[in-house]
Design a protein that fits this description.
The protein is α+β, with helices and mostly antiparallel strands. It has one helix and two strands. It is elongated, with a radius of gyration of 11 Å.
């Protein structure tokens, strides 16, 4: 079975608190079977 991947695009890692919070939320919401690619 192929591993499912999800691409998350944004302005992450640049000190923007809103984008960092959004990324943290998205990563928590992804099922464990999905590999995030940021």
């Amino acid at each position: 079975m192929k591993q499912v991947k999800a691409v998350l695009c944004g302005y992450y890692g640049k000190g923007n608190g809103g984008d960092e919070a959004l990324l943290a939320s998205l990563l928590q919401m992804l099922p464990k079977s999905v590999k995030p690619i940021v």
